């Protein structure tokens, strides 16, 4: 049964690429495997994200979807398999190379927001820009623009502890976009939010995607997130299968 | 390194930051205070020499006179001959030698301590020039003139223009000096030109009976030298003058202080360094605790594109700022401690052989001492050392710990959240 699903996934991925015509993929994971000790968290997972596409990976807790996301973000090294970004293998990059790759191409949004508690909302948005050589004014301008994009200009000076969960996630989204990435990876971005706030966040993601053209890859167990995606893949016991294409 | 982030981190965790600052401050304050205390005591020990503008004195024990009649040399100041004086002058690090001749003159009407000096000398007894209270000081080339200690002059009813007799020879009093303002070393009641003192000594039966006195001998030398080599020079002079040489230096006076000073002088540096290491360990503990709390933040830094070196520099900068702040607070505390130390008095005893009065006379055995405020100061060099050590400590802590934290595997940390 499982092997059928895997085979089905591969066929689906291939068909998707063919359907996309000459358009090249943004991110590709090919036969990714990840083991921790003797336990395989990800097994032969392959997927493709096209530019501007919204892909959701659904699965229960412990199914391996967060590990898959970490592999695709270069935060974790696969035990086997390849990750291609715009057709180029990123597995050969060292840790700093991967960091620079993320800096230039990838934004990340986490379930627990992971904002820096001692920084204001504006400073949190500017956080990825701190190592870059740019003036404080330029950094501030870019951060303010991204904060405005998520509708939180009036909360710029607030620390995370003074923001609601939804507001914190908006700040995290603005932070993910501040480097003008082509891909945003989300790990259960609505997981810590109530239903209404989760809906708001998904509306925001959808709007930002249409405004900026950024591709989204989100792992989630939230059906509403899946409903907003172009494609939904399912992860079961570390194996990836196709689901409904939106 | 981002200063705004640095400041936000330090100000946003005030308890941690203050704990780190005070850890370093404690170590720096202890280190600097101990060094300032030891240095102050060493300076205080030199006070008797500083009073006379010299770095060393040299003399030699000799024989007790057969009789205490007329001019005699105390047995602590046997003659030092010309050849020996020249040898001393040639010791590496010796800059100038002031020759004097110290003597007692026992007359039927009383006793007087006298010192023959070269009026051209600017240090040693030459410093008496600055303690003049009436008349004028001795001048080079003149003979049979004397300046008299004001207290002795009052006791004896002597005045400028009057006369005084030494071993039967008349001397005209040309000035009065307040000896107490010019130091406690080998001070006397009466000061005369060195040439006159030598002439008296060569002719004095009680000097000739026990010493082979020569017309160009001296018996007490004041020496200006390279202070850093003072102990080595003292050893050389002892070799020249033989077993009975008495060479007084800052170290020999320091030895007279004994007790607590000796302990701090010997172990102060070790204790200071241990205090520093203790402070470094506390800093390490605080920084380690802070970084452990912030490992998720570090993982996010990696996730949003910070390179390991950029993270390490940022974290190290925080440690450095804490260490520097701790160093400055420590210096302020040490300055306060040093100021409190200056309120204490140090009594530096002058050894009997440098005391002007015969110990067998009434009051002669009383201890002569120089009392000074403990000159404990923070020197720029000491402050620079302390800050330098703080920076080195912070760098070691900062290079090791943040370096390790910067290499944290973000997936492991973020997965655990």
A few lines on this structure:
The complex is a heterodimer of chains A (246) and B (417). Helix content of chain A is 38%, strand content 26%.
Q: Could you characterize what this model shows?
A:
- The complex is a heterodimer of chains A (246) and B (417).
- Chain A is of the alpha/beta class and 246 residues long.
- Chain A has one domain (2-245): Rossmann fold (3-Layer(aba) Sandwich), CATH 3.40.50.
- Chain A has 8 helices and 10 strands.
- The model of chain A is unreliable at 1-22 (pLDDT under 50).
- Chain B contains 14 helices and 13 strands.
- Helix content of chain B is 50%, strand content 19%.
- In chain B, the strands form 2 sheets. In chain B, strands 1, 2, 3, 4, 5, 6, 7, 8, 9, 10 and 11 form an 11-stranded mixed β-sheet that branches. In chain B, strands 12-13 form a two-stranded antiparallel sheet.
- Chain B has helices at residues 3-12, 14-45, 47-51, 82-89, 150-156, 194-203, 205-208, 230-241, 250-257, 259-293, 295-303, 308-342, 380-406, 410-415; strands at residues 56-60, 70-72, 94-107, 110-117, 132-135, 145-149, 163-166, 169-177, 190-193, 220-225, 245-248, 345-350, 368-373.
- In chain B, α2 crosses α9 (250-257) and α12 (308-342) runs antiparallel to α13.
